[in-house]
Design a protein that fits this description.
The chain is mostly beta strands and 111 residues long. It is 14% helix and 37% strand. A hairpin with a 3-residue loop joins β3 and β4. The two termini are 15 Å apart.
Length: 111
């Protein structure tokens, strides 16, 4: 799997770039698409969940794999509140939701 992700990441410069606000959230047990959040999997990095602003769901539908500059690969399973615009939220372990950044985000695939 690491080889596949590495190969995908090598193709990123040819993909269109979108700078987005990145924030972090640590609440909720079930995502908008019905994925059950396993806190221990989030903590050890095996469950990497992202939520996108509702107006971005056409660009990043549920199941999209995204690469966030400086943070790595996440799968879109959730959406933000309707008043939040141009933002991607990263699910983090309880008590770790801090900060707001601007980063480039690339869609690298979907399942």
């Amino acid at each position: 799997m690491r080889v596949v992700i590495l190969l995908i990441l090598l193709t990123i410069p040819s993909c269109p770039s979108n700078e987005r606000r990145i924030s972090f959230y640590d609440c909720g047990r079930v995502t908008a698409d019905g994925t059950i959040i396993d806190e221990s999997a989030v903590a050890n990095g095996t469950q990497r969940i992202a939520a996108v602003s509702q107006h971005l769901r056409g660009e990043y539908p549920y199941g999209s794999w995204i690469w966030v500059e400086g943070l790595g690969v996440y799968v879109v399973h959730d959406c933000t509140a309707s008043y939040i615009m141009n933002t991607i939220d990263i699910r983090v372990p309880k008590g770790k939701a801090k900060g707001l950044y601007k980063r480039k985000v690339y869609k690298i695939g979907s399942y």
